[in-house]
């Protein structure tokens, strides 16, 4: 008798406030309220943004898989100094520019298979709520107005810097603003900024102006989720000043305000420096998916635990692309074998050994995810084990002469298990596996600067050289292709086998020999 699957382990998440993993228990049973800080849409989004939103998409998907009703809010900061500057340079309105790049961002998220949040509010639609919140903070004596500007007074809030753990004497005003000598404390930050010539503005009790950077998220999170909610997330660069200031604002206005779990993802680094637009050392999501399949980028970002920093390199992206191809090829081969059996009424149960394997994989997957979303390479290991198991099954079938239906049932169970887990991680392609494999192959050929015809020609030249025992020539062709990221595989049927319609051209372009 097969062992039954273990109960689902309870989810633990790392809380940036307490600096430790904690058991996740939502405030309302069965429901989760989550706020993640969104982009400032003045340009195409880079893969640092993809890192954050893929990480929280994995959390969103897993919470839904666990059966929670999730209210997920992710905002757009559609009024900001950078947007104003870029709009002026481009000769268009702030609304036009920000709306255009919001749409581009949403296209990028769809390509990466990030599920749409429940709500995606824009700052400019919530000016009324922002003004109300600033008024409340001032009424509580935690802010002051000066010449049309309004500043939060950090000296009136003893809890300030409790999230980041910084010391006030080491505190800086923040990277987005210059130090204002009129402030009572250099660490005081703007809640409302007086209008400047040629800038968008709204009327307020302090005169015409617009919101400071941090106040928006305090206002919108409270409006959609209440003053106390479950999860607040973003990149670790937001811990200070953005989230630190959010926390201060919210509690200054409403002391009962609380986030149960603060979560922060790591950076994407290039040359050991955080990738960012302001430093001009970034690759946009569009740059990457022009050369790599979007699921290869998603896999690349997920291979490192969400709290760790990802080191960007072409080699790492190549490896991710290879792994995704390996996963899809394995599932495609499985689909092809089982296609002749689907719809048949097979009454025999899944063999005990294979059912135990499925249950074990299911339990280990849940244990990994319950441990602060540990996604690193677990799936790849299981697929390799599945491949070996299938080979062993063929040998056993020849020796033991078991019923073929048992092995068919085993493959159905394994296929279902792997596809379910890939879907939870957001890695199942939106198209057919065959189409996804073709897309991966086409991207690999593009990176190598080759066409399918040119690659096939070189494969045939190498095959001829091997037949003529010109091994130095065949080795040279292999090395030349290898230097372009294409590894050839020699199989018993030849280098160009055309197995199941994929063929060596597809496998050469999409996989390295080390994954075979």
SSE layout and pairing:
Elements: E1 12-15, E2 20-23, E3 31-36, H1 47-65, E4 69-74, H2 81-90, H3 94-111, H4 127-139, E5 143-146, E6 149-152, E7 189-194, E8 209-211, H5 215-225, E9 228-235, H6 239-253, E10 258-265, E11 268-270, E12 273-274, H7 285-289, H8 294-302, E13 310-311, H9 314-338, H10 352-370, H11 378-400, H12 404-424, H13 433-448, H14 452-467, H15 471-483, H16 503-510
Parallel strand pairs: 3-4, 3-9, 9-10, 11-13
Antiparallel strand pairs: 1-2, 5-6, 6-7, 7-8, 11-12
EC number: 6.1.1.16
Biased composition (Low complexity): 392-402
Family: Belongs to the class-I aminoacyl-tRNA synthetase family.
CATH architecture of the largest domain: 3-Layer(aba) Sandwich
Average pLDDT confidence is 88
How many DSSP H or I helices? 16
- Structural class per helix/strand content? alpha/beta
CATH-level-4 superfamily name of the largest domain:
HUPs
What does the overall shape look like?
globular
Order of helices and strands: EEEHEHHHEEEEHEHEEEHHEHHHHHHHH
Number of strands: 13
Radius of gyration: 27 Å
- The CATH topology assignment of the largest domain is Rossmann fold
Strand order in the sheet with the most strands:
4-3-9-10
Percent of residues in β-strands:
5-15%
How helical, in percent, are the residues?
Answer: 40-55%
The structural domain count equals 3
Domain tRNA synthetases class I catalytic: 24-320
Cofactor: Zn(2+)
GO molecular function: ATP binding; cysteine-tRNA ligase activity; metal ion binding
Enzyme class: ligase
């Amino acid at each position: 008798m097969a062992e039954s699957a273990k109960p689902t382990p309870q989810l633990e998440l790392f809380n940036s406030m307490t600096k430790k993993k904690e058991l996740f228990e939502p405030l309302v049973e069965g429901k989760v309220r989550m706020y993640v800080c969104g982009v400032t849409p003045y340009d195409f989004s880079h893969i640092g943004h993809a890192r954050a939103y893929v990480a929280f998409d994995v959390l969103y998907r897993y919470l839904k898989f666990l059966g929670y009703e999730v209210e997920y809010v992710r905002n757009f900061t559609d009024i900001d100094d950078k947007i104003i500057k870029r709009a002026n340079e481009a000769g268009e309105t702030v609304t036009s520019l920000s709306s255009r790049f919001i749409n581009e961002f949403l296209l990028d998220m769809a390509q990466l298979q990030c599920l749409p949040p429940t709500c995606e509010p824009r700052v400019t639609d919530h000016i009324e709520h922002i003004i109300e919140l600033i008024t409340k903070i001032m009424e509580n004596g935690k802010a002051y107005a000066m010449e049309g500007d309004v500043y939060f007074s950090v000296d009136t809030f003893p809890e300030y810097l409790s999230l980041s753990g910084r010391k006030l004497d080491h505190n800086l005003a923040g990277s987005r603003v210059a130090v204002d000598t009129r402030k009572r404390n250099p660490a005081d930050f703007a809640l409302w900024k007086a209008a400047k010539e040629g800038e968008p503005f709204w009327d307020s009790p302090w005169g015409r102006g617009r919101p400071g950077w941090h106040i928006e998220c305090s206002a919108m999170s409270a409006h959609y989720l209440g003053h106390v909610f479950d999860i607040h997330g973003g990149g670790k660069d937001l811990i200070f000043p953005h989230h630190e200031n959010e926390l201060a604002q919210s509690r200054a206005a409403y002391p009962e305000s609380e986030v149960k779990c603060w979560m922060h993802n790591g950076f994407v680094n290039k040359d050991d420096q955080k990738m960012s637009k302001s430093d001009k050392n970034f690759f946009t999501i569009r740059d990457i998916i022009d050369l790599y399949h979007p699921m290869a980028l998603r896999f690349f970002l997920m291979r490192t635990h969400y709290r760790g920093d990802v080191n960007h390199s072409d080699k790492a992206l190549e490896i991710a692309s290879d792994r995704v191809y390996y996963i899809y090829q394995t599932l495609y081969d499985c689909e092809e074998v089982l296609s002749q059996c689907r719809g048949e009424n097979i009454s025999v149960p899944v063999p005990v050994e294979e059912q135990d394997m499925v249950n074990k994989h299911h339990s280990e997957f849940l244990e990994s995810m319950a441990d602060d979303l540990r996604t690193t390479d677990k799936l790849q290991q299981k697929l390799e084990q599945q491949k070996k198991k299938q080979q062993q099954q063929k040998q056993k079938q020849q020796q033991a002469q078991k019923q073929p239906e048992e092995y068919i049932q085993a493959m159905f169970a394994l296929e279902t298990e792997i596809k379910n887990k890939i879907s939870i991680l957001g890695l199942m392609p939106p198209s057919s596996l065959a189409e996804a494999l073709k897309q991966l192959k086409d991207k690999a050929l593009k990176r190598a600067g080759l066409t399918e015809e040119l690659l096939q020609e070189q494969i045939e030249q190498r095959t001829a050289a091997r037949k003529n025992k010109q091994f130095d020539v065949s080795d040279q062709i292999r090395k030349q292709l290898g230097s372009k990221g294409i590894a050839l595989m020699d199989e018993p049927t030849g280098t160009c086998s055309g197995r199941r319609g994929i063929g060596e051209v597809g496998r050469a372009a999409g996989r390295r020999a080390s994954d075979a």
